[in-house]
């Protein structure tokens, strides 16, 4: 779809756009730069930095029991007026149970701080579950949480667009659609186009199936761009200026059109080991932060 068509479609369809700007959030890791688990004080420092640089007051995590995240982050969030989307990692039974227990232990007392719960991150993309299997996990979680607490999942945009996620649509309150123009090898100049097109395809499919735009709360669950030079993927080139361009022209465009979105991620994570990317090359995942590990914004973060 042409960029102008996407923009026209977004503008013409109240289904996916509202007059108000969307909400900016950040994905947040559980570890300090040296790999130690964050404490409540560390999360409070995170929130101070995020709020002052971007104005954002919502973050999301991935595995509630990892590093005892839930215990440390919720009091910090309450103190700083921040909301948290907690995650359950359902891929293996042990983490599913640990994360779920960590949340149910505090769900009642922190109902005002927990924005919602995601069951799984890209499990369909990895082929770990079918839609039906994921649906069962989501419904189990929903049955254990206080009534009214939002439950959903996060997955790659194409798994929503191509129908892989169809089975879960009737069981979720909230969906996180991940879309990385970078991992699609988009050049800097085409990144915004690719990103908006991904979101458009996923959102239109979800809304069609759900029977309207008011049925499921949709967020862009992750997007981002690494700042290290040399971390290229096809025509997508890592670097500070390219990341800044993507944040300010791509991410903020989505926000301007009324979508809510989480930038991946708040801070660099230098402790992360190199992983092998989809192209078989070593992928450096340490520099995706909008801020450095010592919490300094790399570029202007207000949309
Ligand atoms: C989490 O806290 C418990 C005590 O409440 C402790 O035994 C455990 O080692 C902690 N786990 C991590 C990963 O920090
Ligand atoms: C830009 O992205 C769109 C959508 O993915 C694609 O169709 C188009 O070929 C790309 N253009 C360039 C110049 O790479
Ligand atoms: C249900 C299922 O397929 N679970 C698998 C998900 O992936 C992990 C590894 O990441 C396996 O250990 C699980 O068995």
From TrEMBL:
Q: What GO terms describe the biological role, i.e. biological process, of this protein?
A: carbohydrate metabolic process; cell wall organization
Q: Could you tell me where this protein is found in the cell? A: Secreted, Cell wall
**One GO CC annotation:** fungal-type cell wall
Q: Which domain of life is it from?
A: Eukaryota
Which first-to-last residue range defines the signal peptide?
1-19
Provide a Gene Ontology MF annotation, just one. Answer: glucan endo-1,3-beta-D-glucosidase activity
Family classification: Belongs to the glycosyl hydrolase 17 family.
Q: What is this protein called?
A: glucan 1,3-beta-glucosidase
The species is: Trematosphaeria pertusa
Q: What is the lineage of its organism?
A: Eukaryota, Fungi, Dikarya, Ascomycota, Pezizomycotina
């Amino acid at each position: 779809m042409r960029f102008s068509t996407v923009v026209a479609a977004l503008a013409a369809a109240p289904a996916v756009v509202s007059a108000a700007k969307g909400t900016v959030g950040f994905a947040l890791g559980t570890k300090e730069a040296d790999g130690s688990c964050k404490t409540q004080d560390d999360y409070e420092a995170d929130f101070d930095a995020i709020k002052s640089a971007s104005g954002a007051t919502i973050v999301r995590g991935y595995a509630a029991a990892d590093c005892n995240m839930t215990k440390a982050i919720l009091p910090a969030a309450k103190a700083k007026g921040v909301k948290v989307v907690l995650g359950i990692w359902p891929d293996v039974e042990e983490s599913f149970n640990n994360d779920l227990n960590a949340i149910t232990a505090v769900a009642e007392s922190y109902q005002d701080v927990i924005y919602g719960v995601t069951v799984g991150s890209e499990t369909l993309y990895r082929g770990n579950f079918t839609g039906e299997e994921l649906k069962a996990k989501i419904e189990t979680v929903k049955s254990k949480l206080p009534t009214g607490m939002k439950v959903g999942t996060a997955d790659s945009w194409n798994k929503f667009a191509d129908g892989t996620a169809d089975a879960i649509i009737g069981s979720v309150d909230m969906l996180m659609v991940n879309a990385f123009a970078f991992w699609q090898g988009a050049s800097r100049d085409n990144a915004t186009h690719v990103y908006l097109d991904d979101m458009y395809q996923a959102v239109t499919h979800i809304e069609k199936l759900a029977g309207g735009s008011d049925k499921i709360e949709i967020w862009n669950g992750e997007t981002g761009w690494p700042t290290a030079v040399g971390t290229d993927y096809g025509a997508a080139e890592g670097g500070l200026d390219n990341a800044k361009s993507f944040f300010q022209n791509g991410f903020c465009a989505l926000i301007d059109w009324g979508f809510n979105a989480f930038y991946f991620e708040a801070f660099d994570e230098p402790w992360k080991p190199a992983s092998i990317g989809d192209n078989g090359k070593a992928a450096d995942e340490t520099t995706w932060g909008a801020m450095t590990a010592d919490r300094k914004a790399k570029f202007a973060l207000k949309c």
